[in-house]
Amino acid sequence: MKIAVIGCGHWGPNLVRNFASIESVDKVVAVDSNDEALSKIDKSSGKIELKKDALKAIEDSSINAIVVATPPETHFDLAKKALEQNKHVFVEKPLALNSKDSEELIALADEKKLTLMVGHLMLYHPAIKKLKELVDSGELGDICYAYSWRLNLGLYQRNMNVLWDLGPHDISMLLFLMQKNPLEANCSGRSFFGNRQEDVIFGNLSFEGDIFCNMHLSWLDPLKVRKMVLVGSKKMAVFDDMHEQKLRLFDKGVVSQKYFENIEEWKLGYKTGETIAPKIEDGEPLNIECNHFVECIETGKTPLSDGRNGLEVVKVLEAMQNSLEKKGENVSV
Fold first, then answer.
1. Which of 33, 58, 62, 225 could form a disulfide with 151 if both were Cys (CB 3.0 to 4.6 A apart)?
2. 114, 134, 168 — which closes off a domain?
3. pLDDT tens digits along 70-116
4. What predicted TM-score, i.e. pTM, was given to this entire model?
5. Domain limits for position 165
6. Residue 179 located in a structural domain
7. What is the rounded CA–CA span in Å between residue 1 and residue 294?
8. DSSP string of 26-39?
9. Can you count the helices (H) and strands (E) in the chain?
10. How far apart are CA 200 and CA 217, in angstroms?
11. Taking a C-beta distance cutoff of 8 angstroms, is the pair 147, 227 a contact?
12. Is 273 exposed, middle or buried (0-12, 13-18, 19+ CB in 10 A)?
C-alpha cells in the first residue's frame, strides 16, 4: 500500500512517521510545497518519498490513499479531489467547515465505496477506550454532568478560532462517551490576541437525560491542560492526558435519603471510597489511529471516526459558532 500525506507542517511529520511504521505500508509520500518542511521529514525508515505538488500526488495512480493534514479551509477541496480519483481518504479534524461539504464527502465516499476517516485522535486513546467501557458497563451510574479543559499558550491559528481548532477533540470525545448527540449548545468567547478570532471559549452542551457538559478551550493560558471529568450517580472519573495516571476512577458521590416525611427529615450523605487507576492498554493514540485507517482500507471495515462521525462533530461546531455569534444564545444542534 502506498499512502500520501499532504501537509508536512506542524502535525504532518507525525503522520508520515506512523504510517511508515506499518508493515503493510510500502511507501509514504510526504507532500508539501515548502522545501523547509520537507527537509525536516524523518526518512530513516527507507519508505519515504518527497513531493511538492499535492494535485500530482492525488492524481498518481500508484497511490492508494490520501491523508489530508493541511489547514482546515483546504480539507474539503483536497478530500473531494482525492475521492474523485478513487483514493481512500483520511482527513485531519475537522472534516470540513460546514455540514453541507461534510455530507458531500460522505456521499461521494459511499458512492465509490471508499474509506473516509476523520482524525478524531482522542477516540483512539487507550484511556478514553477504557473510560468508554466504564460508562457503558454502568460503573459510573447515570452520567450527571461532564466538563473538559483544553488549554495552552498557543498555538494561534490565522484562519480559525480556538473553537474550531481545539473543540473537535472534546466534542468527539463527548459524543463517543455519551453515545448520542447534544440537543442544544451555547457558547461565549473573546478575542484578546486572536485578530478577531476568539482565543478563549466557554461552551455548554445539553444532552437528553438532563446531562450537562461544559468545555473551556484556550490558546491563552499559563498551563497546558488536557482534562475531562465525568461525574456519575455512582462514581466519578477523571481523564488527564498530562498526568502519569491518564485515567482515575473515584468511588465518591452523594447518597440521598430516599424516603422522608417532611423537608426537616431530608438528609444527604457523602460517599468517599477508594481511588483507583484502571489498567489501560499500551499504545500511542496516533499509531493506533493510523493502523486503524490501514485496517479499514484492507478489510472494508467502517472506521470508528468515519465521515458520519465527522459530520456530527461539525454540526455541533456549527451550533456553537452560531451561539458564539449570537452572544451566547441557546442554539439547537
1. 225
2. 114
3. 999 999 999 999 999 999 999 999 999 999 999 999 999 999 999 99
4. 0.95
5. 123-285+315-332
6. yes
7. 9
8. -EEEEE-S-HHHHH
9. 9, 15
10. 6
11. no
12. exposed
